[in-house]
Amino acid sequence: MLSVLRLRRLVRQVPLQTSFIFLFLLCILSVFLSSYFLFAIKRKLEPSLAAGRSADDLYVTPSRPLPFLSGVGGTLSSDGSRTDPVVLVFVESPYSQLGQEIVAILESARFRYRTEISPGKGDMPTLTDGQRGRFVLIIYENILKYVNMDAWNRELLDRYCIEFGVGMIGFFKANEKSLLSAQLKGFPLFLHSNLGLKDCTVNPKSPLLHVTRAQQVFSGPLPGDNWTVFQSNHSTYEPVLLAKTRSAESTGLMHTSVVQDLGLHDGIQRVLFGHNLSFWLHKLVFVDALSFLTAKRLSLSLERFILVDIDDIFVGKEGTRMKVADVKALVETQNELRRSIPDFTFNLGFSGKFFHAGTDEEDRGDDLLLSYVEEFWWFPHMWSHMQPHRFHNQSVLAEQMMLNRLMFHRVFVLVTSTEEYPHLKPARFRRGFIHRGIRVLPRQTCGLFTHTIFHKDYPGGPQELERIIDGGELFLTVLLNPISIFMTHLSNYGNDRLGLFTFKRLLNFLLTWTHLKLQTLPPLQLADKYFQRFPSDTEPLWQDPCEDKRHKDIWSKEKTCDRFPKLLLIGPQKTGATALYLFLGMHPDLSSNYPSKETFEEIQFFSGHSYHRGIDWYMEYFPLPSNSSSDYYFEKSASYFDSDVAAVRAAALLPRARIITVLSDPVERAFAWYQHQRAHADPAALKYSFHDVITASHNAPVKLQVLQKRCLAPGWYATHLSRWLEHYHHDQVRILVVDGQTLKTDPASVMEKIQTFLGLENQVDYHKTLAFDPKKGFWCQLLDGGKTKCLGKSKGPRYPDKQSQVFLRKYYRDGNIQLSKLLYKMGQVLPGWLREDLLNIR
Ligand SMILES: *[C@@H]1O[C@H](CO)[C@@H](O)[C@H](O)[C@H]1NC(C)=O
Ligand SMILES: *[C@@H]1O[C@H](CO)[C@@H](O)[C@H](O)[C@H]1NC(C)=O
Ligand SMILES: *[C@@H]1O[C@H](CO)[C@@H](O)[C@H](O)[C@H]1NC(C)=O
Ligand SMILES: *[C@@H]1O[C@H](CO)[C@@H](O)[C@H](O)[C@H]1NC(C)=O
Ligand SMILES: *[C@@H]1O[C@H](CO)[C@@H](O)[C@H](O)[C@H]1NC(C)=O
């Protein structure tokens, strides 16, 4: 049967596999796009808390049964599909602490989001896309930014929320300027600030509770001194969390520190927090608020799978290994955990060679452990605990593994997991993937490592380990991951048995505060579960091995990142990218890829099915670097430009590459593409006229619709370019947009610009190496002896019939306007054809 090889080691087979992976955030601040939809209305930013009651007449709204919500104007739409599942987060700045914590939770739960700086320069992003809402939920890091928004934007946002049933989460952060008591402007809600609180309880009647279990009192002071509590007698407000003020010994009055607005006041449902997320219970309630306010569209189920790996069985140093009593405790604890996690079983990773390598007492522990072989799940490390990448060939590696097999009659690796391969930090970016049939799941750390074996020596003290468990990182890992595989080591189960302590305590905490249904599965089934749950994780994302020292260390010494291209020419098709490819190849410092053995043309690595073959395959397309400092490889695949996946993949492997795209009039491009298809005898292109193709409707034959999409979609320049910008946006110099028309009429000037863009020391004057061929009507490479080398034949007419032109002008109009804004933002010159097009629009 079996299982998981600990990847830390498997990975080191890497000369065989070389998989480096990196997952990028798919959501990135789209600062570029948003600021075009500004309303230049001056903002009032002063806090506008009207004087209110004094702090001593605080009282709490009594809990009451819930009003039925769906009748309220603009509550959650029942089908839930009128908005995109994207959260709009207004943060105070890109670096604000709370904003980052909000984003971290969204990312961990894999919820899509977009951040905007509020107040910004008055920018409210576009909220709708035709009939659809673009956001399912609004979050304000500082709710006052919402309350004090100018009337125009406020109206816009409120109307959006009501029409699309979109709710809001806001945090109230008291500062020196906040009045102690005030009314929240425009709401029947009073705030009392700068309080110290203690003894928090969850309102069991709160409708938003999902994961959160309201049973226990959190005793003791809540973190921070400047809490705000909410008070109202309006029936729209329902407390979620209640706490006492630290001073109010006698009265025992409970104040609302998190309040839910049921939408009865103005039709918008809200959840307001009187403090940031540093209190762990706020994180739990925040996750429930996300779920409730989005009608469970952004919601994790209550099912949680947990697997605990114990690595290095038999490997531990003499004196730190498990003795007979430790092994017994392990079995007992396992039985105890099974009462709450059915069939819970520790998953033991072993290296056979070190069996009986401890003291006599520890050797007896080994014997007992072995006698319990059926009690546990097992998986192999290397026989002698070596790093697989130190083996020169696969047969020797296999031999080593077979030794383990002789011992246990089980080996073989179909599923494995890793916490550092990819070596991604923070942990929320770890992803599973499948490579060569081996399924790799992400692994979590739980605060325990080989060296953490005694309570008293725990880094930061024993209370630090408790903090990690009780609402800290370990708790959050389980809260936010449907499947958690934890790494621990043999030494955590001898000595003070911190492993047993940790998981018993974690379980107890989870059962006390959550409704999570804890389960476990053996690795193979767990992998099935994982890839069912995250189907998009099957594809690896190859990462630049030289960007991470640990990756570089396990990479074959013979390989070099200089064998990767430093420039990608991404197309699109039929804009002149092929001519540019030829011209670039004429430069002595630039070397192009070898042509593909399969297609004889482009490699299409990042956009095509060859991506799963891995980076060794890709590197084979480039010569071994002779002199790494001067070799400058480039690659052209015109399919990259409009590919959904090419940009994120290219940025993962080639984060420092330069990108060139050639854009010509999309109308001209579409027509040229169609003619190209005809020239290559594409049956559909031969059958239908250009006008048929571009105007085909939803009812048209599928073949025609497919042709139409391939013809028109690459011309949505703004859409594709902004995707590339998202991944190559660190500095704008990385992407150069070349005007396809200028490339045609004055290629030498374009080449000059490109050489500067690439920072080539060796500037070549292309006036001397290119010649205009009057017969063909374009510029060609000038060869020795006055001959020219040209690409292809002269083409037919540049533009289609008038009617088609009119149709396409209109079709591409909005996209072209967006493109001009993008290029402006990038500080790039607008191509002549685009300027002309924009003039015609006005
Ligand atoms: C939350 O507030 C506390 C107390 O004011 C502060 O120490 C902490 O850094 C804040 N955390 C975040 C994430 O803003
Ligand atoms: C709380 O607010 C008071 C003023 O109201 C301020 O003096 C104090 O520094 C604040 N404390 C924290 C921890 O932010
Ligand atoms: C709520 O309180 C306000 C002011 O304290 C008062 O004017 C109002 O009548 C109260 N409303 C209800 C429903 O009790
Ligand atoms: C693998 O390496 C071993 C020892 O270095 C050698 O004896 C064996 O021939 C090698 N096998 C292959 C297939 O290269
Ligand atoms: C390698 O490149 C450097 C500068 O780029 C040059 O000085 C040196 O001569 C080159 N070496 C070889 C062997 O080409």
Automatic annotation (TrEMBL):
- Its EC number is 2.8.2.8
Write out the catalytic residues in the record.
K574
Q: Which reaction does it catalyse?
A: alpha-D-glucosaminyl-[heparan sulfate](n) + 3'-phosphoadenylyl sulfate = N-sulfo-alpha-D-glucosaminyl-[heparan sulfate](n) + adenosine 3',5'-bisphosphate + 2 H(+)
Fetch the Pfam families from UniProt. HSNSD-CE, HSNSD_N, Sulfotransfer_1
Paired cysteines (S-S): C780-C790
Residues recorded as binding 3'-phosphoadenylyl sulfate, renumbered to this chain, are W779, K795, G796, P797, R798, Y799
Q: Which UniProt keywords apply?
A: Disulfide bond, Glycoprotein, Golgi apparatus, Hydrolase, Membrane, Multifunctional enzyme, Signal-anchor, Transferase, Transmembrane, Transmembrane helix
Sections of the chain in a coiled coil: none
Instruction: Please state every residue range assigned to the domain named Sulfotransferase.
Output: 565-807
Listed under GO cellular component are:
Golgi apparatus
Q: Where does this protein reside within or beyond the cell? A: Golgi apparatus, trans-Golgi network membrane
Tell me how this protein sits in the membrane.
Answer: Single-pass type II membrane protein
Family of the protein in this entry: Belongs to the sulfotransferase 1 family. NDST subfamily.
User: Which PANTHER family has this protein been placed in?
Assistant: BIFUNCTIONAL HEPARAN SULFATE N-DEACETYLASE_N-SULFOTRANSFERASE 1, HEPARAN SULFATE SULFOTRANSFERASE
Could you tell me what this protein is called? Answer: Bifunctional heparan sulfate N-deacetylase/N-sulfotransferase 1
